[in-house]
Specification:
The protein has helices spanning about 15-25, 45-50, 55, 105-115, 120-130, 155-170, 200-210, 265-275, 280-285, 320, 325-340, 425-440, 460-470, 525-540; strands at about 5, 10, 35, 65, 80, 130-135, 145-150, 185, 190-195, 195, 215, 220-225, 235-240, 245-250, 255-260, 275, 290, 305-310, 350-355, 365-370, 385-395, 400-405, 415, 450-455, 475, 505-510. The protein is globular, with a radius of gyration of 23 Å. It contains 14 helices and 26 strands. It starts with a strand and ends with a helix. It has a domain at about 155-185 and about 305-395 and about 420-480: Cholesterol Oxidase, domain 2 (2-Layer Sandwich), CATH 3.30.410. Helices cover about 25% and strands about 20% of the residues. The chain is an alpha/beta fold.
Length: about 550
């Protein structure tokens, strides 16, 4: 084992949370900070071209390439479950959509934790701190932060027609999905700069990496945390770099901390290998128990998108534009000259939030609409013109799990999202499919003769639609909750409201796994907001 170095803060995982923490904590020149990332540097061109997510997901250069177990709710299917393995983490391969969630989401966090610092009013201040909004600073948005929020650099006629149809169906037009009530339809804001993807590495590490007190180690897989079994103090980490076992120590005598930011999947793996988790599960793997926390790996939540596909006539979509050599050349030329067009687009361009039924108290379903269609991710676009209207339940009641079944740090865990396992989720799925049909039947789309290709009009009853949802449903890549924060009396809470691991000193989990209830929308920005909160706590000590 190589000689150990000592740091004030050790951050594990250079993703959406880890990169921000590294910048914030290294602003104090008297603090030595170590950032450890399992993946490589983000100097891979397809990370930075927005459409490059197509070449990053399921690519070992940037993705852990996890899969779920066979899911009963998905009629026995197993899904690809992308997680970033590169500087920038999932922000290097995600959909670039800037979404905070809704005010009610954060009120549920306050209820779960008893801590008002997670209220909508308080989290809004944090969002504004790191935001650089495309418009003027106002009560909703900040200016001058590291995280650029841009308008998209393209529009599609078929998307505009879908927007009109949604308005005809009673969904109002919206220019901003980040004001606390997302009900409406409009184009998503995205995290891009001048047509290039903005990942957390570029936003937070580019300047911070020049600081003498920040050390960044890539291609280093953390095996486990170093924890004193008597004092229950986390005083370092063990990791593998170039096949050599190494360790880094934390200066806990001067309030040093280890900050685990490996994500809703990775953080669980590291905790369990370190002896933190369900005693019964750890003992079955021969792992000595440091802290019996049965909530580790439980409470997994994700947004399941139901990908409805409609064929259209008389209007162009990306399917036919990209299916010819000339079309591809023109797409490439437009991006080279203007940084616009299909190569600049996020995976989903048009969004909508709606009520799946009148009994809902706030918008509970989200649409990601695309001017294209394909059978499944990674396959070629269809040869016919079509659009995809993906709809997801943003407040699912199904809860899954993730656990290790091997001590090998490179072994994939067992990921069991447990989609559509509750009657409520199956009901919302059926309502969502009917709502989409209602939108598509409006007069704005009538000239293009939309024909339901997937799942198909033969599915009509609630039971048939729930079955269809299982056939066409897939992850939208938003796993959260597996190390949730909560009140002391909650036996499944892994963290307190300041994200400290219960029963272990000098250790916090700072990523999406801390979220007790999933936010109503895309989860990258909430993860950064969580890191901003912990940076506040640590720098005010």
């Amino acid at each position: 084992m190589t000689q150990s170095k000592t740091y004030d803060y050790i951050i594990i995982g250079a993703g959406s949370a880890g990169c921000m923490l590294a910048k914030r904590l290294s602003e104090n020149p008297n603090k030595k900070v170590l950032l450890i990332e399992a993946g490589k540097n983000d100097n891979y061109i397809w990370i930075h071209i927005p459409v490059g997510y197509l070449y990053c997901i399921d690519n070992p250069r940037a993705d852990w390439r996890f899969r779920t177990v066979a899911e009963k709710g998905l009629n026995g299917r197993s899904l690809l479950y992308p997680r970033g393995r590169v500087l920038g983490g999932c922000s290097s391969i995600n959909g670039m959509i800037y979404m905070r969630g809704q005010a009610g989401d954060y009120e549920s966090w306050v209820k779960a934790t008893g801590d008002d610092s997670w209220s909508w009013e308080n989290v809004l201040k944090r969002y504004k701190q790191f935001e650089d909004y495309h418009g003027d600073a106002n009560q909703w948005h900040g200016k001058g932060g590291e995280w650029t929020v841009s308008k998209q650099r393209l529009r599609w006629p078929i998307m505009d027609r879908f927007k009109e149809a949604a308005e005809q169906a009673g969904i109002p037009a919206s220019e901003d999905f980040n004001r606390g009530d997302n009900f409406g339809v409009g184009y998503f804001d995205v995290n891009q700069r001048a047509g290039w993807r903005l990942n957390s590495s570029k936003a937070f590490l580019r300047d911070a990496a020049k600081r003498n007190n920040l050390t960044i180690i890539t291609e280093a897989v953390v095996n486990k945390l170093k924890i004193d079994p008597l004092t229950k103090s986390c005083y370092g980490v063990e990791y593998l770099k170039d096949g050599i076992a190494s360790e880094a120590l934390c200066n806990i005598d001067h309030d040093g901390e280890v900050l685990l930011s490996a994500g809703a999947i990775g953080s669980v793996q590291i905790l369990e290998r370190s002896g933190i988790g369900s005693a019964a599960h750890l003992s079955s793997l021969g792992i000595p128990v440091i802290a019996d926390l049965p909530g580790v790996g439980e409470n997994l939540q994700d947004h399941l998108q139901l990908r409805m596909i409609y064929k259209v006539d008389g209007i162009k979509t990306l399917n036919t534009k990209a299916n010819s050599l000339f079309g591809k050349l023109m797409i490439g030329l437009e991006y080279c000259l203007k940084r616009s067009g299909p190569m600049s687009m996020a995976p989903s361009q048009l969004g909508a939030f709606a009520y799946s039924s009148p009994e809902q108290k706030s918008a509970n379903v989200e649409y990601h609409v695309q001017p294209l269609s394909l059978e499944k991710f990674g396959e070629d676009l269809h040869s016919f013109n079509a659009f995809t209207a993906s709809v997801c339940n943003v407040r699912p009641t199904s809860r899954g799990s993730v656990h290790i079944d091997s001590l090998d740090p490179e072994a994939p865990p067992l990921i069991h999202p447990n989609y559509l396992s509750t009657e409520e989720d199956r009901k919302v799925a059926a309502e969502s499919l009917r709502l989409t049909r209602n939108i598509v039947q409006q007069s704005a789309l009538a000239p293009y003769s939309p024909e339901e290709y997937k799942p198909g009009v033969q599915y009509q009853t609630d039971a048939e639609l729930a079955k269809a949802a299982g056939d066409i449903g897939t992850t939208i890549f938003h796993p959260v909750g597996t190390c949730k924060m909560g009140r002391a009396e909650d036996p499944m809470a892994v963290l307190d409201s300041q994200l400290r691991v219960r029963g272990v000193h000098h250790l916090r989990v700072v990523d999406a796994s801390a979220i007790p209830n999933i936010t109503s929308g895309n989860t990258a920005a909430p993860t950064m907001m969580i890191a901003e909160r912990v940076a506040e706590l640590l720098t005010s000590q």
